[in-house]
Amino acid sequence: MKYIFPYRSNDKHDKGLDDLLTNSLKDQEHDLAEDFDFAMNEKDGQGKYVNVYKISTVTDIKLLEYWNLHSAESFSDFYREQLKDLIEFQIGKHKWKFSETGQLIPAQPLTEDEQYWKKEEREDKFGRPVVQHKFKYMYCYNFLNRRGFGRYRQVNHTDTFVYIKDKVVEIVDSYFMRDFVTEFTKEIANKEDLVDVMDMLYRGGKMYLGPDSLSNLTYVNPYFEVADKSFQYMYFKEKVWKITAQGIEERNYSELDHFVWKDKVISMDAKQIKPTYQLSSGIKTHDFINVQRIDDLLVKQYTGKVDLSPFTGQFFVTFSNEANECHFAKFLWNTSEFFWRKFLDPETRKPGKDERTAEEQFETSLNFVSKMTAIGYLLHKYRDKSCEKAVIAMDGKISEVGESNGRTGKSILGNAIGKIVPQAYIGAKSKELTSDPFIWEEVNEKTESIFLDDVRANVDFEFFFPLITGQLTINVKSQKKFTLPEINTPKLFITTNHAINGNSASYRDRQFLIAFSDFYNDTHKPADDFGINFFTEWDEKQYTLFYNFKAACLQLYFKAQALGWGINKSGLISPPTERLDRRRLRQFIGESYLLWADEYFSASDGTEPADIRSNELNRPIARKELYDHFLERNPNDRNT
Length: 640
Fold this sequence. Notes:
Layout (H helix, E strand, L loop, with lengths): L2 E2 L12 H6 L6 H12 L12 E2 L5 H7 L5 H7 L1 H4 L5 E3 L2 E5 L5 E3 L10 E7 L5 E7 L1 H9 L3 E5 L5 E7 L2 E5 L1 H15 L2 H13 L1 H5 L1 H4 L17 E4 L3 E6 L2 E6 L7 E2 L15 E2 L5 E2 L3 E5 L2 H6 L13 E5 L1 H4 L2 H9 L22 H22 L10 E6 L14 H9 L4 E5 L21 E7 L9 H4 L3 E3 L7 E3 L6 E6 L8 H5 L1 E6 L9 H5 L9 H24 L14 H12 L1 H10 L22 H11 L7
Parallel strand pairs: 10-14, 19-24, 19-25, 20-21, 21-24
Antiparallel strand pairs: 1-2, 3-4, 4-5, 6-7, 8-9, 9-10, 11-12, 12-13, 15-16, 17-18, 22-23
């Protein structure tokens, strides 16, 4: 049996259970528990402090009535004290206000040319009075157009219906508009005409408010955000963050000079976090995560403390207390730590003596900073022609060719991008990935990120060149193919358990590699560290920390761009490359050749079998001799 426990107000003005427990029942929680037990066993569900309703067999309509959500009039009457001083307020899909006499009226009342039904009185052939209601098509189109509905011509040259509200544009269907009209009609129609008017709408709904009829709506052409090189917006339910190298500026939607697709609006309102703390250099900062590059000035500031001159160009990373509570930030740091076995027990993960060198600690910082700027790049809608790349997340652990490490957290990063911007996810393990003519069919002009998850080692990376440099032709089943303009072409994020083949300048210039350590693997997952699953089990606090971290990534990206820290004066900071280069080189060479060469050129210690060549170091060798010996040991590689 399921219950709900709406609180019943009392003469002490306790508005809810929180007030009740801190006021009337302070330090008497057991009294409330006893009242719950009592009310649940009463036929009418009435307790001293609560009314309890059994909802197992209650209809949805009845549930709405419990909370006065079944009509605008009922809701406004119940919450009149809270609403009476507002200029206007929204109930359901419509905005309302109180008139000077206290009557509930639409915030945008019907004008004469919006009255989409007309009452007509006439006599039938027997002289009896007949009342008839007629639907006015044009007036209904006026009503919908003036409340934000219209037709929109998409990049693929097809039309769709949209609803614009407070600078936010949402694609809707004819049913949404039909419901919008019928719900509004229920609230404003005269009671004596309500049944007849609603019958008219229900009976002729398909004809009056179907797709064909609504195709007469006026076209709308909202001006969408044009990306800028030096800032990026993040859109929340009520507020907008404008993020620059200097920080976050919070705005209202009414202050925007552009519109935004609803797909890009995050469904909660995150609070901006502005921590205050002092860095080791003595500088005070408000950054969620502070990143300092070691340069001549910083070296001088640390004079007498530690000699930083050997580490010029490396980065100090300082977490605020709030950032230390952020699951995603700590997770990303762990994925950047390749030397974790030097301070954690590999079996228990309990901390021990830290035996990392300064060089190893700075390598971890650089891996982390590089990932932060990669996130900033992927969240930044602007396309910099001097630095257009696919971000490729790969395992940094050196392993045998063909061995798949996996489970290192790469896909979590890809999913995190999709929590901020509209994303098309594509499982990319198929051998026929690049031969699929409909590979991009889920991509449209609203998409800002394409996530190719688990790409094979031998994927044809050249296939993605047009996408990376800003031209994407999309082929959708049963539709005419079209090409997205450069400003609408999404950025590409790829995960792979291998290195991607191709080593020419064209390949390298289009790749930005980030390395993931084996801190997380088949036996140790993020949930083991944080106690919950990411995204699905986070509470509002963790999501707020997550959004602040994403904003910090954008801020660092713009800072690196402004200070010239990144590649080609972009905001992308290169990671340590030696580990990734060695992994790629091993894959390109091939495991059979590596094993053969290790054996062929090994120095003799007198223990090898007689047939092993151990005296081939430091002497010229004919290529054919080497090749013949390699094929002798690896006959299956003759035709590879």
